[in-house]
Structures are given as structure tokens and as C-alpha cells.
Amino acid sequence: MTSAILDVANIETHYGPIAALRGISLAVEEGKITTILGSNGAGKTTVLKTIAGALDPTRGQVRLQGQEIQGMAPDAIARKGIAHVPEGREIFPFLSVGQNLMMGAYARSDRSAMAADLDRVLSYFPRLVELRTRAAGTLSGGEQQMVAIGRALMSRPRVLLLDEPSLGLSPRLVKEVLDVIVRINRDDKLSVLLVEQNVAQALQIAHYGYVMELGRVVMADTCDQLRTKADIQEFYLGMRADDAGPNRRWKKKTWR
Amino acid sequence: MHSLISVIVSGVAVGCVYALIALGFTLIYKATEVVNFAQGELLMIGAFVAYSFIVLWGWGYWAAIAATMIVVAVIGFLIDAVILRRIIGQPQFSVVMLTIGLGFVLRAVGTMIWGTSSLVLPTPFAGAINVGGVVVSSTTLSMMVGAVFLCGAVGMFFGLTRVGVAMQAASQNQLAAYYMGVPVKLLFSLVWAISGGIAAIAGVLIAPVTLVDSNLGFLGLKAFAAAVLGGFGSVPGALVGGVLIGLLEQLSSWYVTADMKDIAAYVALLAVLFVRPQGLLGSVGRKKV
After folding, report:
1. How far is residue A32's CA from residue A191's CA, in Å, rounded to a whole number?
2. Chain A residue with minimal CA distance to B185?
3. Which residue is closest to A107 within chain B, CA to CA?
4. Is A251 inside any structural domain?
5. d(Cα B247, Cα B264) in Å, to the nearest integer?
6. Which residues of A fall within a CB distance of 8 Å from B175?
7. Is residue A253 part of a domain?
8. Averaged pLDDT in 10-residue chunks for chain B of 289 residues
9. How many residue contacts between A and B have a Cβ separation below 8 Å?
10. I need a surface site. Which of A73, A109, A113, B216 has the fewest CB within 10 A?
11. B268 is in which domain, residue-wise?
């Protein structure tokens, strides 16, 4: 794991007395998309929030390029180069789309590069061009998600944390948003940590995956490998080698 | 007829100053969700500090205004950064009590330093100007021009500058602002500084009309009524509410009795709140979690 840009080691995070993370270790390789899978309540969002500094771990380290960042304020962590696209988008509803995007670049001062990045973000999400002056709160869910991702990209992050970017989007928009993530990763070699409910899609675009259950990592492998594992297929992809066909139907009826 | 117009003009002028104080309330409330009941006392300190600069130390009027603004802005900044930051997250009730307590402390400090007698703040505004047959005193004019100028400057700051937009962003979604790398706590303290600066100017502007003493702080309550009247948390509402209250005060003392002046603000507030509980320009349920 020498090429890990972000390294999470044994973090434990509590909500009051409740342990949400019970010793999570994971690594985000430079230039790769890493995904965290798991059912509701597994602690995926908590991992991202802990990395972003919104929650402080009671134990363990978070290292960005070898430097420990756990326990720092979220704004300081953001300035270190971790951009967090939180669950539920969390845009600034009364600011215009353009202002929202520029807020992502708040910590930067290189004006010409910022303008270039704005053009690039708008090229990823061409729909936002005509919406630039609209208040972001009036946009549709998918457009708001584009604003949230674009805003994060405006900070020129070293690591992009994405929390369920496909939540509440139509299948076509999901594909559109995930395609952009793939493009950004490929073109800019941006390291991404993706939390996604849509396991099939996540496994398709990510390089490496962790499976979480009840605050622990229970499986970690390349996504190519994960796709072939029986557990994953059964629990997350809805496939089951031996349950198809009349055999299963018959079995289901036996207890009647 | 002309006397009615001049009553209206002076009402609007005083209302402009109320609007400034109400603007201070609103800015702090929008940014930090704290109702700062010491806003009137910041105004009082502003008037006292300006008196010290001009009368005791012989500064020029304009230099004194600038210095006063900076002094009170620093006081506002420190109140937030040193005192209020510690109890943010505690029940709203304790925060309110703290700001009320701060008001008392500031009033006591004002009395200790500057005494209890009313002081006269000299201004360069003398004489009167004849505007279309209506005689408007320079003092009245200074209140209106000063308020409009300051509101414009504040509006431009929040709408156009990077820090101003970031303050709006932090008030709309604090956590997301943190995620953008915005130093939210520092910005909140800066909002307090801005509100303090506005209160200081309001104090200097209204001093020629009211004299300077420790009771000046009670203007804060009238301005609070103005902010609620306009719809608490709405900037245009604060400005409209301020001007309306100033106007109502003067008109009621003109048409009814002079004693009506001090209760007119609250009567109007009650009447409006019966009909529109959210205030004139307030909106319902706009706050997002």
C-alpha cells in the first residue's frame, strides 16, 4: 500500500455511546476509484464524515499523503485537499449555481486557473451552463447533484469523497453522473472514494472495493474479484446461482 | 402641510437609523442564529467612543467616525470569538440570556467610563437645506444619507465579495461551507464585527437627536421591534421595518400625543403580528436543516 494517497488506519468513531465504526482500515490508491459497499447502517457515511473531519474518531489515524489529519477541523481538512460531496448534496440553496461552484474554490487564489477549472466543470456538466444564474435550491435533484460534484471539483482536490451521488436520481441520470466520475478519474488521475448503494454500478466503475458490515470491513478486494464472489452476488447484486428456476419456487411452497 | 412633510422627513430619518440597528440584529441572526440583545448597547458604546475621540481627544469628525467603527467592530468580533463561541450549542435560552447580560455589562461599563449625564456630540452638520420648499436640517439629511450609504456598502459586500458570498453560504448551509474550506467560525466573528461597526455608525448618526447617555442602548429594543415587524431574519424586512417604525413614531406624536411616540412601535408591532405572524416581509419555513 505504498501508493495510497489516503490511508485510514483502525479508526473508531462513536455517536455518543454508540460505536458506528469499530476499527476501520482502508486505503485509497492514487489515481484510482475506491468504493465502499455495505447495507444501510454499516457505517459507510460515517467513514466519509470521519475522513472529512465532520466527526472525530476516538481512535485510529487518517493519513493524507502520510500526514495525519484526523481530528482536524473540516475546513482545515478541505484546504489540505480532500473534497467531500456529502450525502443529500448540501448545496447552498439561495446562492446561484455559479456562486455555488465558485464556493468550491474558496480556499484558492489562482484566479486564472480557477476560471479554467470552472470551464472544465461546466464541460463535464453542460446542463449547468444555462442554469448558472439560477438559485441552486430551485434545481432538480440531479442538477443539484451535478452542482455538488462540480463544486467539489472546483477545489482541485487530491482526493474526492463521494457519498451516494446516485441517491434519488433516475437511472439515466445515475449513469450520467457516474460516467462523469469515471471521466474525471481517467482524465485528471483524481483519486476517488465512492460510497454507493447502487452496488452493480459501483463495482463496474471502481477499481478496488471494501465491503462493510456493522462498522467493520468484512471484505476487501479488487472490484473484478468482488464481482465474482458469491456473497456479493447474493446480497448486493440480487443474483443467486441455485435459486433460479422452478426448484426454488417449489421449495418456497413447502411450508404452506 | 409643510410641517407634516417635515414630520415625515424626520420620521424617515430616525427610521433609517432604526433600520441600521435592525440590520445588525438580522445579520447576526442570519449568520449565527443568535439574537443579539446587546445590539443597542453596541450602539451606545459607539456613541460614547465617538464622543471621546471628538470631544476629549480632539479628533476630526470623519477620522473619529472611522476610528469608532473600528473600535466597536473589534468589540463585536471579540464578543463572538471569546465569549459566545463557548456557549454555542447550548440551549438557545442561555445564549439569549448571555446577550442580555452582555447588554447590562456594556451599559454599566459605559456609565463607569463616561458617567451618567447626557453628553452632546458635536457634528459638522449645521444649518438646513431647502429641498423643494421643505426645510431639511443637515443632521436629518446626514442620518438618511449615512444609512443609505451604509446599507448599500453592506449589500455590495455580501453580494459581490468573496468573503461576503461565503458568509451567505455559511448561513445557508454551515456544514457544507466547512466542507468548502471556509473558516466558518472566523467568518461568524467577522459578521459580529460588521454588525458592531454598523451599530457604531448608527450611534454616531442618531447622537445629535437623542444626546449620548447610557440609555441610548434602549434604542436597541425599538430596532428589535422593527426587525420583527419586517420579518425577523429578512434583510429588506429589517430596513422597511426600521423606516416604518421611525415614521409611525413621529406621525403618532404629531397626530395623537407626544407620549404616543414611545409606544407606537410596539402597538404597530402587535397589530402586524396578529395579521402576519411572520412579519411584513418574512417567509415561513424557509430555514433548512
Report:
1. 5
2. A75
3. B181
4. no
5. 10
6. 54, 74, 86, 90
7. no
8. 82 93 92 90 95 92 94 96 87 89 93 89 83 82 92 92 93 92 93 96 91 88 90 88 92 85 86 86 59
9. 72
10. A109
11. 2-275
Q: Is B241 left (phi over 0), alpha (psi -120 to 50) or beta?
A: alpha
- Substitution target from A75, A95, A102, A109 for chain B, most B beta carbons within 10 A: A75
Is residue B15 situated within a structural domain? yes
Residue range A166-213, pLDDT digits in tens: 888 888 888 888 999 999 999 889 999 999 888 888 999 999 999 998
**Residues A24 and A193 sit within 8 Å (Cβ to Cβ):** no
**Domain stop point among A134, A156, A178:** A156
Please identify which residue in the block is written with the cell numbers 465491503: A211
CA distance A27 to A115: 32
Total domains in chain A come to 2
Final residue of a structural domain among A122, A156, A190: A156
| Beta-bridge partners for A160 | A83, A192
Q: What are phi and psi of B187, to 5 degrees?
A: -65, -40
Q: What's A192's domain CATH number?
A: 3.40.50.300
Residue position matching grid coordinates 436543516: B289
- What's the farthest any 2 CA atoms get from each other in chain A? 71
Q: Cβ contacts (< 8 Å) between A90 and chain B: which residues?
A: 173, 175-176, 179
Count of alpha carbons within 13 Å of B242, Cβ hemisphere only?
29
Spatial neighbors of A207 by CB under 8 A, at least 6 apart, are A29, A32, A33, A34, A222, A223
Identify the bridge partners of residue A68 per DSSP, sorted by sequence position.
A63
ipTM value greater than 0.90: no
C-alpha B160/C-alpha B23 separation (Å) is 18
B184 in contact with chain A, both atoms CB, cutoff 8 A: yes
Would you call B175 and A90 a contact, using CB atoms and an 8 Å cutoff? yes
Q: Is A99 exposed, middle or buried (0-12, 13-18, 19+ CB in 10 A)?
A: buried
Which CATH number characterizes residue B236's domain?
1.10.3470
CA nearest B191: which of B142, B158, B216?
B158
Q: Tell me the three cell numbers of residue A139.
A: 434545481
In sequence order, the β-bridge partners of residue B129 are B136
- Residue A50's domain comprises 1-81+158-241
A109 and A120 in one domain?
yes
Residue A14 lies in a domain: yes
- The three cell numbers of residue A100 are 455555488
Kindly state whether A99 is in contact with chain B, defined as any CB-CB distance less than 8 angstroms. yes
Judge whether B280 lies within some domain.
no
- Side-chain-side CA neighbours of residue A54 (13 Å): 21
The Cα A243–Cα B93 span in angstroms is 60
